[in-house]
Write a structure and sequence with these properties.
about 25% helix, 6 helices, alpha+beta
Length: about 260
């Protein structure tokens, strides 16, 4: 190698040690671009984290299958319904994450009474009927401790409800599929694991999350997302329509 070759080689080494681009690229080689499915999933996760509010419809599998239809925001406001095993429905109101109320629907009270009758526990019907009359059309206060313990109640807190989702992923798989007659992409976090998360986004257009699948405390959750950013404004029930938390306002003791 001639003098010019040695000088060029020495210059490349010096520039490389300084971390500058020269002699064919950075010292550590060209930066790799993320795969399209990774970019799409990270964009969807970023939008999810940025939602100030969202409407969620889906189901949570625990001891029962709980269907939910909820609107919640980052301020702790939440309205909607929970339905257990497709039959027992309760309305829910949460105000700024500090106060919560639930209300039995008339259909749920009827269903519970029929369940007692079918179970041959007719001797409990008089007490049940008295309790049912007191709670019909009324909201029952939910203790804050119970709010923190119930997995379904976590959905009323978007930070807690979406906590299984990472801020970003390094690997993902993409599967074109059909959802309610529309072409979508199913993006699955890698490596596959028990707590993996899946995000569905439109096949074309903005990469907005429209369905989520994940596991929370070993409970599988599936939900569809709509109406991001729409205000959630629960109305505090009138005091005359509120019952304090306790057995006098609880129909469940009849089944213990």
């Amino acid at each position: 190698m001639g003098k010019q070759g040695w000088r060029a080689a020495a210059l490349c080494v010096a520039v490389g040690m300084a971390g500058l681009t020269a002699c064919g690229g950075p010292a550590n080689g060209p930066e790799k671009k993320a795969a399209p499915e990774v970019r799409s999933m990270n964009e969807a996760l970023g939008l999810l984290r940025g939602y100030s509010s969202v409407h969620m419809i889906g189901e949570l599998h625990e001891d029962d299958i709980v269907h939910f239809d909820l609107s919640a925001d980052r301020e702790g406001n939440c309205t909607g319904t929970f339905t257990y095993n497709g039959t027992f429905e309760q309305e829910i109101l949460v105000k700024e994450g500090r106060q919560a109320w639930t209300r039995y629907t008339d259909g749920s009270i009827t269903w519970l009474r029929d369940l007692l009758t079918k179970a041959g526990q007719t001797e409990r019907l008089p007490l049940f009927d008295r309790t049912a009359r007191s709670v019909k059309g009324k909201y029952i206060e939910v203790p804050r401790k119970k709010m923190a313990q119930e997995p379904v109640m976590e959905l009323c807190d978007l930070d807690r409800g979406f906590s299984p989702f990472p801020s970003s992923v390094k690997q993902a798989e993409r599967f074109p599929t059909d959802l309610d007659g529309k072409q979508v992409l199913r993006l699955v976090q890698l490596p596959r694991a028990r707590d993996e998360v899946t995000v569905y986004v439109p096949a074309k257009g903005p990469v907005a999350p429209i369905r989520l699948e994940y596991t929370k405390l070993d409970n599988p959750v599936l939900m569809d997302l709509t109406e991001p950013g729409v205000p959630v404004e629960p109305v505090t029930p009138d005091a005359s329509k509120v019952l304090p938390a306790g057995s006098d306002a609880d129909l469940y003791p009849e089944f213990s």
